[in-house]
Structure formats: structure tokens, C-alpha cells
Amino acid sequence: MDFEGWMELSELYLSQADYEKAAFCVEELILNNPNNHLFHQRYAECSQKLAASKSKSKVEHVSIARKAIAKLDDQFKKAKSGTQSIHEAAMNSLLDSLV
């Protein structure tokens, strides 16, 4: 599997704000290397951006992001705390849009 290719493709989709395709690319990476914390972190970021966008299922994407954050190992505390802060900002944005 071409890990670099999938990662570059996800970055390209992220730069074009095509978060669903970016998430798909990262899902492919996770399927082939489920223990890589960077892939889970990237997946959480994609899911958070989907939730913050005008997606129809914001709550579903927030839930997916939360699960991806939970998979980050405690040995990667900096990555986990950074991803959690992004998640909290996305949640606040979601709540503000619902009010």
C-alpha cells in the first residue's frame, strides 16, 4: 500500500475543503495500519471539519471524531490534547449553529 500517496491525497482534499474524500483516504490508511496514531489523529481532524461544515449529519461526525480521539494512545498526550481542543472548538461551533 502507498501510505504516502493516501496521505498526500487526504491533504489535497483537505486543502480543497472536500472533507468526506479526505476522511475516506485516511480510513484506507487506518485499515492498513490501525496502530498508527497519526492516522487516527488525521481522521479525527477530518471528522471535526465535516462536523463544522454544512454537512447534514453534524452530530454523527462529531461522534466519529470523538471515537478517533479516544483511540489515540496516552503515550501521545500532546497529539491527543491538541486534537481534543480542536474537537471542543468544533463542538462549540456546532452548538452555536443549533441555537
TrEMBL record:
How this chain sits in the membrane, per its record, is: Peripheral membrane protein
Q: Where are the TPR repeats?
A: 3-36
Its quaternary organisation is: Component of the ER membrane protein complex (EMC).
Q: What is this protein called?
A: ER membrane protein complex subunit 2
Pfam family membership, one: TPR_EMC2
Naturally occurring in which organism (per UniProt): Bugula neritina
Start and end residues of each EMC2 TPR-like domain: 2-55
Q: Which family does it belong to?
A: Belongs to the EMC2 family.
| Gene Ontology cellular component terms for the protein in this record | EMC complex
Is Coiled coil among this UniProt entry's keywords?
A: no
This protein's major location comes to: endoplasmic reticulum
**Localization per record:** Endoplasmic reticulum membrane
Record has Mitochondrion as a keyword: no
Q: What are the entry keywords?
A: Endoplasmic reticulum, Membrane, Repeat, TPR repeat
Query: Tell me, what does this protein do in biology?
Result: Part of the endoplasmic reticulum membrane protein complex (EMC) that enables the energy-independent insertion into endoplasmic reticulum membranes of newly synthesized membrane proteins.
